[in-house]
Amino acid sequence: MTETTRTSLADARQARGMTPEIEDEYAAAQLRFALGETVRTKRQDLGLSQHELGHRAGMTQSAVARFEAGGTVPTIPVLDRLARALGLELRVELAPTAKSA
């Protein structure tokens, strides 16, 4: 019997090479996940369920769940509704990118 080896996601990504398109999509996915994580953490801090947050924001529970999982590309109005429902102010900032050393 032969033994199979598993490749980690990082190893597979490195072996395949990161094209600019893949890098852009990876960065976008990281941003969606970070936004979702921020909303989930604040929601939990407030003791709200996904259903309660959805009701406050005019969304369904499943839409909140998808957002928190990073599965949707949010619009500014959706971000604003979620922020208000969480008692927050939405701020969008464009800043210079950090230069590599």
Descriptive overview:
The chain has a domain at 19-85: Orthogonal Bundle (434 Repressor (Amino-terminal Domain)), CATH 1.10.260. The radius of gyration is 18 Å and the shape is globular. Helix 3 crosses helix 5. The chain is mainly α and 101 residues long. The chain contains five helices and no strands.
CATH class term of the domain at 19-85: Mainly Alpha
Stated plainly, the CATH topology of the domain at 19-85 is called 434 Repressor (Amino-terminal Domain)
Low-confidence stretches: none
Q: Helical segment tally?
A: 5
Q: For this structure, what is the CATH homologous superfamily of the domain at 19-85? A: lambda repressor-like DNA-binding domains
The string of secondary-structure elements, in order, is HHHHH
How many beta-strand segments?
A: 0
Net shape:
globular
Decide which structural class fits the backbone: mainly alpha
As a percent range, the share of strand residues is under 5%
**Major sheet: size, sense and barrel closure?**
none
Q: What is the quaternary state of this protein?
A: single chain
Give the N-to-C terminal Cα separation.
49 Å
How does CATH name the architecture of the domain at 19-85? Orthogonal Bundle
The helix content is 55-70%
Mean pLDDT: 88
Cα gyration radius (Å): 18 Å
